[in-house]
């Protein structure tokens, strides 16, 4: 291809870079890409169907998820990948607790950073291999991504997102004494609650855009991004919080100028009357109509609620299409044929 516009910059790998590690296409070979699409993967893409999160379970789940993502890319979609980290952060918190007398517990922003690295590394390797099998030599790269939150977000004064395992009250006492917030959930025991503030800004968006323009497939803002606050001199520091990956995905999609957002989860569609005899999956729907269902309380907080909210925010702020569906239906969803497809 000979014509190249101003934004058709060709990646310039360092001399000696192996072909497999190079950017999207060789110089002059850059093809026009399909619509930029943020793909947000839920916990089911990273743990076994029974919820197991052993390393081999996580690797196998990620490998199978990356087959679906590779299909989208091979079909011409320009994908920006993001993912959740709930079970992985839960595991790290248990380690923190059990080892607290031996090694100092690390803060939640560190847990977020650690899971971005392990999940990102696993995704990059799996997606690279899945693309190669389809004859697509593409660079895939995971970006340690910070998401800014407001220091005065009301969530900090009212931590309400349960994380980690249940503990009997007598054991939870030790952590309450360390200043943590725990709530009593009745017969199952107590659970730690942390702040889940509103994501405001993807701080690493400029680096992410450079990666995208280079032709690489990026994995970014995993776990909703590492929560950070900025002081008035612009100094960034980690915040003791977790972020909702669906809400961040909507912000991410706008930050990279995506036309479409796919939220891949373990159900084929959002459902009205979920759990009732009148349950009915939602197909193609206008944002205003879905907003009305959300206002009526059809989507549970902490699961389908944030997905619907993210889809609505994206479409209401200029996105062309948001899709909520199963991993295996992402392509059909993007074509408007399956799943919950939200349009302006
Ligand atoms: P993920 O790990 O992909 O973020 P979640 O477990 O957070 O997945 O959210 C998906 C789950 O939301 C479904 O498995 C389902 O149990 C639950 N859910 C709650 N309300 C609804 C609804 N109205 N329609 C569909 N699923 C719902
Ligand atoms: Mg979720």
Walk me through the structure.
This protein has 344 residues and is α/β, with parallel strands linked by helices. Helices cover 35% and strands 21% of the residues. The protein has ten helices and 17 strands. A six-stranded mixed beta sheet has the order 2-1-12-16-17-15, with helices on both faces. It has a four-stranded mixed beta sheet with strand order 8-4-10-11. Strands 5-7-6 form a three-stranded antiparallel beta sheet. The longest helix has 26 residues, at 108-133. The chain is globular, with a radius of gyration of 21 Å. Bound molecules: adenosine-5'-diphosphate (ADP) and magnesium ion. Adenosine-5'-diphosphate is lined by residues 42-44, 84, 265-267, 270-271, 274, 298-300, 303-304.
Number of strands: 17
Name every ligand kind in the structure: adenosine-5'-diphosphate, magnesium ion
How much of the polypeptide forms β-strand, as a percent range?
A: 15-25%
Radius of gyration: 21 Å
Instruction: Return the average pLDDT rounded to an integer.
Output: 90
Q: Shape from CA axes? A: globular
Low-confidence stretches: 1-30
């Amino acid at each position: 291809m000979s014509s190249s516009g101003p934004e058709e910059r060709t990646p310039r790998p360092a001399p000696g870079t192996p072909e497999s590690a190079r950017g999207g296409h060789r110089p002059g070979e850059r093809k026009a890409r399909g619509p930029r699409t943020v793909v947000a993967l839920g916990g089911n893409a990273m743990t076994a169907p029974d919820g197991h999160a052993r390393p081999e379970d996580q690797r196998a789940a990620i490998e199978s998820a990356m087959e679906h993502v590779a299909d989208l890319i091979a079909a011409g979609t320009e994908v920006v990948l993001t993912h959740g980290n709930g079970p992985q952060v839960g595991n790290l918190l248990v380690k923190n607790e059990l080892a607290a007398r031996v090694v100092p517990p690390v803060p939640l922003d560190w847990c977020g950073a650690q899971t971005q690295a392990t999940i990102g590394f696993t995704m990059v390797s799996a997606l690279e291999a899945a693309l190669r099998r389809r004859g697509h030599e593409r660079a895939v790269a995971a970006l340690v991504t910070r998401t800014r939150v407001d220091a005065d977000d009301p969530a900090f004064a009212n931590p309400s997102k349960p994380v980690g395992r249940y503990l009997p009250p007598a054991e939870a006492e030790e952590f309450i004494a360390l200043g943590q917030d725990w709530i009593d959930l009745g017969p199952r025991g107590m659970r730690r609650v942390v702040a889940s503030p509103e994501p405001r800004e993807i701080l690493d968006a400029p680096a992410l855009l450079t990666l995208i323009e280079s032709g690489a497939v990026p994995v970014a803002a995993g776990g909703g991004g590492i929560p950070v606050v900025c002081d008035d001199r612009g100094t960034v520091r980690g915040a003791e919080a977790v972020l909702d990956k669906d809400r961040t995905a909507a912000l991410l999609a706008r930050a990279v100028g995506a036309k479409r957002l796919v939220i891949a989860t373990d159900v084929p569609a959002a459902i009205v009357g979920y759990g009732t005899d009148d349950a009915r999956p939602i197909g193609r729907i206008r944002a205003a109509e879905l907003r009305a269902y959300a206002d009526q309380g059809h989507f549970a907080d902490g699961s389908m609620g944030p997905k619907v909210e993210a889809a609505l925010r994206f479409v209401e702020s200029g996105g062309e299409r948001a899709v909520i569906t199963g991993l295996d239906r992402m392509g059909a969803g993007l074509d408007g044929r399956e799943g919950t497809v939200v349009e302006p």
